[in-house]
Write a structure and sequence with these properties.
About 65% of the residues lie in helices and about 0% in strands. By secondary structure, it is mostly helical. Among the domains are: about 110 residues; about 130 residues, no CATH class. Helix 11 runs parallel beside helix 13 and helix 21 packs across helix 24. The N and C termini lie far apart (about 70 Å).
Length: about 375
Amino acid sequence: MILKAAIPASSGHLLDELQSTLTHGTVARRVETLRRVTDLFINGAIDYSDEQVGLFDDVFQCLIDHIETSAKMLLANRLAPIDTAPPLTIRALAFDDVIEVAGPVLSQSARLDDKTLIENARCKSQAHLMAISTRRTLSGAVTDVLVQRGNDDVVRSAVNNPGAEFTERGFTRLVDRAEGNDDLTASVGLRPSVPRHLYLKLLAKASATVRQRLEAANPRQVAEVPTAVKEATRRARSATSTITRNTDIAHALVKSLYDDGRLDERQVAAFAEAGKFDEANASIAALANMPVAIAENMMVESRAEGVMILAKVAGLSWPTVRTIIRMRDELSGAEPTDLMASQDTYERLRPSTAQQVLRFHRMQQNAPSGPVPRA
C-alpha cells in the first residue's frame, strides 16, 4: 500500500509485480523490475516529494541487494546525474567496492555531501578517490583528504580540477609532495589561489624546466621580473608579484588590526609561529612604516639581514625576530640561518642605521611611501 503514494495510478500494475519479485522473484526478474522502477522514477523525478523519493529509496535498496553488479552499474549511471536521486541508494552505490558501480555517483551525484565524500575518501580505494577528484566542485575539506591519502594520480587530478579548492594545510602538503615531481610542481604553481609564501617554497626547489613552464604560462608576470635575478630565492620572489585573493584577505586583516590599535609584537610573533607569511610580512611593514612590497623583497633575500633591519625599525625584540627568521627559512626551503650570529648582529644594530638602510631601499626600488596596510 505504501508504494501507491509514490507510484502513479497508471503504473499501478507494477505494485503486484514488485511485491511478487521481492518475495520470490529470480535475479533476472529483479533486474527487469529494477529497470522499470528506475524508468518510473526518472520520468517523474522533478515532481516527486521528499516522502515519495524516500519510498523509491526503500524499493531500490531492496532490489539492489539481490542483483548482479552489471545491473548496479547501470543503475548508478542512470541515477548519478539526477539531483533528487534517492539519497540512501546513492550512498550505497558510492560505497560499493566495485568502482564501476561507485565511480559514477562519486564523480557526479549532488546527493553526496562533504561529510559523506570525506568518509568515503578515508576508507575506500584509490580508484574511489580518483572518482571523487573529478567532481565539478570540491571543497577544501575534501581535497585535504585527497591530498593526504591519494596517490600521485589522484593528487594530480585534484590539482588540475578547476573546481577544486584547497586549504592552506592542503597546499602545504602539495608543496611537500611536489618536490622532485615536475608535473605536480607545475600544476600546483599554476593554481591561482596558492599562498605566496608556499609559492616561494615551491619555486625555490623547482627545476629549470618547471620554471620555464610557469614562465610560459604567466608571461605578464614574468615581464615584471628583473632578468638578472637568478638564484632560487630571488626566483621565488618573482612569484610574489601576483596578489592572490588569500593575500588580499591577509592584508585586510592586518590593516584592520593596525587601524584598531591591536597590531603589536605579540601578534606578529603569532603570525610567524603559525607560518603565515603574508600576515607577518604585512604586519612588519605596517609597524616599520614601509610598503609591503619593499618589506617582502627584504624578507625573501638570501641572507637574514633584511629581516633584521625591518624588525629593528619596527621595534621588535630578538625572540620575535628569531621566530620570523625560522618561518622564512622553512617556507623558502633555504639553509637554516646561523641564529647565534644573527642575534649578535641584531643586538648591535642601531635603529638609526636600520632607518638609513630602509631609506636606501625606498630610493632603489622607487616605491611609494607609506605602508600598504594603511592605504
